[in-house]
Design goal:
The protein has one domain (5-51). It is built from 2 helices and no strands. The mean pLDDT is 95. 83% of the residues lie in helices and 0% in strands. The longest helix is centred in the last third of the chain and has 26 residues, at 26-51. The protein is mainly alpha-helical.
């Protein structure tokens, strides 16, 4: 089942909050940031689909 845009944004926010905690683990921090960006891209796609 496809997540809603709100769910995707919430997941991105959760990952970014976790990334802020990982200041001493740069590789993990970067990976969490990349995952958050993916969730935001998914949210944008879902919102675009809903407009059509």
């Amino acid at each position: 089942m496809m997540p809603t845009a709100d769910q995707a944004i919430a997941n991105a926010a959760r990952l970014l909050e976790r990334a802020e905690i990982e200041l001493t683990n740069l590789p993990l921090m970067e990976r969490l940031d990349e995952l958050a960006a993916s969730w935001l891209q998914l949210a944008a796609l879902v919102m675009e689909k809903e407009r059509v």
